[in-house]
Amino acid sequence: MVSGKEPGEGITVVGAPIIYGVTIPKNAPHPDLAIAFLKFLLGAEGQAIMAENGQPPIVPAIASDAMKLPQELRDFVSQDK
Fold first, then answer.
1. Conformational region of residue 63, where left means phi above 0, alpha means psi within -120 to 50, and beta covers everything else
2. Cα torsion for 10, 16, 22, 26, to the nearest 10°?
3. CATH of the domain at 44
4. Strand partners of residue 73
5. Is the predicted pLDDT of residue 80 greater than 80, yes or no?
6. Does 81 score more than 70 pLDDT?
7. Is a pLDDT exceeding 90 seen at residue 72?
8. Which long-range contacts (CB under 8 A, 24 or more apart) does 68-77 make?
9. Separation of alpha carbons 50 and 58, rounded Å
10. Residue 75 lies in domain
């Protein structure tokens, strides 16, 4: 609840969820480690950690173009429609 227009008055503001994205830059110095991290993050253990910390994951994750992903990550995502 946040303060309203009058003293002692409050109003409820309803927000939308925050949705995070992740990528591997084309010039990443260690792309193999980036892939390993994303496999962890998008896998069951990473999803559980995120959920336990108030960030429920989108399962499966959504990719705008799954064919641009490294092969090792394609099983963790669905294609954005």
1. beta
2. -100
3. 3.40.190.10
4. none
5. no
6. no
7. yes
8. 70/24, 70/31, 70/35, 72/35, 72/39, 73/35, 73/38, 73/39, 73/42, 76/38, 76/39, 76/42, 76/43, 77/42
9. 10
10. 24-79
Is 12 part of a structural domain of the chain?
Answer: no
pLDDT tens digits, 37-47:
999 999 999 99
pTM (predicted TM-score): 0.74
Residues in contact with 12: Cβ distance below 8 Å, sequence separation at least 6, in sequence order:
1, 2
Of the candidates 41, 42, 36, which has an alpha carbon nearest to the alpha carbon of residue 76?
42
3 domain-assigned: no
Write the pLDDT tens digit of every residue in 4-54. Answer: 888 888 988 888 888 889 999 999 999 999 999 999 999 999 999 999 999
